[in-house]
Design goal:
two-stranded antiparallel ribbon; 12 strands; Spore Coat Polysaccharide Biosynthesis Protein SpsA, Chain A; 11 helices; 10-stranded mixed beta sheet; globular; alpha/beta
């Protein structure tokens, strides 16, 4: 990674045909109360005039802008890593192009960095753009069945919430990462292309003894899945494939052996439900593609499990497993269900 460290933070944004989103994003960043940052925009082969728009406004921005131009869509993970490589700060924020951070967003994130030992990740509270009183995500949750979801998704927001809360890891759509952590455990796994790469990074960091917290005063509006959409077959394929890789790489023994029957049973139920309700072969194809690459990911597993062994730090962040009929509640807000009460807060 770059090592000049000449700004307090680097912000990395990956863009794919987001011309309609970029003016609002740039305006939100120009209004930040923390001024000492650079923006690195990685464009993944956009064809909608995104680069012309950005280049046309660059001179009027109150922060340095660096643009990486990919000829084609390299995927979110690989493109993010390009931005991380160019970043010059000790703290690097990932921000979706469909996010609109509040003016104090970056300031609140940076204020948090000295508040916990071995803090490697700080998460934002992301609010649904079309229902700003509702939380889209307050971080990553993972249960013993290997299911990952947006913690607090669908909960009513409390704007006055201030206590830091330990979380498994932050959603990569609006997160702050420590360079020292990325140098130790690596950045995003480029093989994932898109989806669950932030869970994979948080899991590796947990096993290496790094901590993560939610800073509830670092807030951003989020237009959920504005690029691929919630129900696209491509997204379901990637989620099915990447879940296999996530668990093969990271789930440590003896817990993997203990919970493997539960993992397989819940995953079969999820895939079967998708097939029965939508004729969803994309999720099945994704899982088959994941298993087809098993030898390569077993090699990654050997490296991870032999290098980082702070299992207690990982176990502490795992969420309880719920019965299968309760799992859909975790995603009800994505289908427009009513607001749910906030639960599970763990103030530090």
């Amino acid at each position: 990674m770059s090592a000049s460290h000449n700004v307090a933070a680097s912000i990395v944004v990956v863009n794919l045909n987001g011309a309609r989103l970029l003016p609002g994003l740039l305006a939100s960043l120009a209004a930040q109360t923390a001024r000492d940052f650079e923006l690195i925009l990685v464009d993944n082969g956009s064809t909608d005039g995104s680069l012309r728009l950005v280049e046309g406004t660059a001179n009027g921005l109150p922060f340095p802008l660096h643009v990486i131009r990919n000829a084609a869509n390299a995927g979110f993970g690989p493109a993010s890593n390009q931005g991380l490589q160019l970043a010059s700060a000790n703290w690097i924020a990932m921000l979706n192009n469909d996010a609109r951070p509040e003016p104090a967003w970056l300031e609140r994130l940076l204020d948090t960095t000295e508040r916990m030992p071995r803090l490697g990740m700080v998460g934002s509270k992301m609010l649904r753009a079309h229902r700003p009183g509702e939380i889209d995500t307050a971080g990553i949750a993972v249960d013993w069945a290997g299911i990952a979801w947006d913690w607090r998704g669908g909960a009513a927001d409390d704007p006055g919430e201030r206590d830091l809360i330990e979380i498994f890891g932050p959603c990569g759509g609006a997160a702050l990462y420590a360079r020292a952590m990325l140098d130790e455990v690596g950045a995003f796994d480029g093989d994932f292309f898109a989806y669950l790469e932030d869970v994979d990074l948080a899991w590796r960091a947990r096993l290496a003894g790094w901590q993560a917290c939610l800073q509830p005063q670092a807030r951003a509006l989020h237009a959920h899945s504005a690029t691929l959409g919630d129900a696209s077959p491509r997204k379901r394929f990637l989620l099915g494939r990447n879940k296999v890789w996530l668990l093969v790489k990271n789930y440590p023994n003896p817990w993997l052996a203990r919970y493997l029957p539960l993992i397989l049973a819940y995953d079969a139920l999820a895939a079967g439900y998708g097939l029965a309700t939508r004729g969803d072969l994309a999720a099945w194809r994704g899982r088959m593609a994941g298993w087809a690459a098993l030898p390569r990911f077993l090699a990654k597993r050997r490296r991870i499990q032999s290098t980082w062994q702070d299992v207690d730090n990982w176990r502490r962040a795992m969420s309880p497993t719920e019965p299968p009929w309760a799992i859909p509640r975790r995603y009800a807000h994505l289908r427009g269900a009513p607001l749910q009460p906030q639960t599970g807060a763990r103030p530090l």
